Amino acid sequence: MPPRGYALLISVIFGWGLAWPMIKIGLNEIPPLAYRGLMLPVAGILTLLIARIMGEQVRLPHGQWPAFLFSTFLNITCWVLFSTVGLRLMGSGHASIIAYTMPLWAMLCAVLFTGDRPTLLRYAGLACGLVGLGILLSGELGVMAESPLGVALMLVAAATWGAGTVVQKRVQWRLQPMTLTGWMILIGSLPILAVALVDEVWLLKPISPLAIWSSIFVLIVPTIFCWFAWFRVVALAPVVVSTVGIMLVPVMAVIGGSLLLDEAVGSREIAALAFVILGIALVLMPQKKSAAN
Known about the structure:
Order of helices and strands: HHHHHHHHHHHHH
Shape: globular
Number of helices: 13
Radius of gyration: 19 Å
Mean pLDDT: 83
Low-confidence stretches: none
Largest sheet: none
Structural class: mainly alpha
């Protein structure tokens, strides 16, 4: 991979990792649905604009609307709704560890609904991920004691993203990734915006400069730039490089939560993070084709 590829990958790790504590800062002062419902449509429009400038065709093709809407509902609407409310109820580092079990749930959904037959290595990965979650949730000092509703919402968010990933991979999209992402962000955020306009916008109060700047950071860096950078990394890098890179995001989120929000990081968090990352590594490891293939 050329040097610019590594630079982009490092940017994605820092951007997506720091997004968790930065979103938490905004959610401390802004209602969750209003926070995401007002921000994401802007991000979707800007992403489509960037795609158009890059020469992509930004029209949605006919015949793919049902799959597009179903995938968007899972990957954007459900993910944003459950993860945002869940994040408001718990620490950003803990939330990121639970959220990044997404590949484990994607594998489970593939087994249950598409008849996929994973290798023993991937079953071992699922087991490692569940052990990591168990460590994080267990005991009186575990995250479950801190916020059971937050944990439940983050688990649902991770599961819906995993299911959406399975749906998305089974469709031969006639759109380039940047355009597809822009439309998904825009259309998937509209239901959240509609509810926010009715239920939460009237609760908005003047917010601090810190919350304003953190929200601007979330809009520009992780929501727009990092998606663009990630597509470039996928195009430039071997799969193993991008996979290892994405596993470092929750590590960065835990570090960012500790530095920016003074969230506790002890042996429980480190052990849970290690098992979850090991599980993701085993699940995402390419499977060897059989001799019959």
